[in-house]
Amino acid sequence: MAHDLPGVPAPDPGQTHARLTQPALGSRRLSWLATGPDGGPVGVAGLRVFTSPGQEHLAELELHVDPAHRRLGIGSLLLSQVVAACHAENRRSLITAAAADSPGEAFSERRGFSRALALDHLLLRLDELPDADLPLTADTAPSGYRLAGWTGTVPDEYADAFASAKTAMNDMPVGDMDYGSVAWDADRVRAMAKVIADRGDTLLTLAAVHADGTMAGYTEVLLPQGSGPRAQQYDTAVVPAHRGHGLGLWVKTAMVRRLRAEHPDVVEIETDNAEDNVHMLAVNHRLGFRSYRRTLEFRLDLPSA
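RESULT FIELD:
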């Protein structure tokens, strides 16, 4: 990753250990290690097998080959094992991602993957953003809405409303990807928070709550274990019935202010948006995010065994 994504902080051993031992919500993980003649590692592959209802057709590949050992068939060997596992798991769709114009992009296209989605990665430098440049003031609220926030697990009083708001993510632009759809309930949002906490990460959430108690929108930011200068944007969504009131910009601005107040060591936020998600890209650009790299997502349709 340091070779292929020089501008992206590489995961440290603790973060890698957490990813290997704490599967993402609604999935389990299979892993492969390729070694050279001296027994040293030269390549790795990980397969996320989705288990949630509505996603039983899906698996996600992560594959890395050491730059010094590329073009020797190691990636193809690992991929053949992954595809065999997909057949054994009755998966019909294998998805993966690669940096644009990278060896991973070329490898995916040579192995029959089709390009399904382009993502624009953006960075917001908090230390270069004067408070006066934020588009909304701290006490600015669209009429009829108030702000609620928490760290980690959603409070019980908001759990059902938050689960309903999570469903709004099902209509985000996904190009030709075949993610399926996920039904959110209070138990699932609590389980998501537990997975993140068990990895040692911290999840911050801010939500727009309507006067009638409906959760109209929210934004989430992840602080990787050990913290550090870069936070990761997770979901931002506005429920369809509440769109058009500037709620997305409002909650994201409030999150910037929260990070500055509670986590001054965080100096930048990374997010990504589908390139055809023009609304959220406009929100992020207005807040001060700037594009710095692109990722391509690929899909391999697997015939029935």
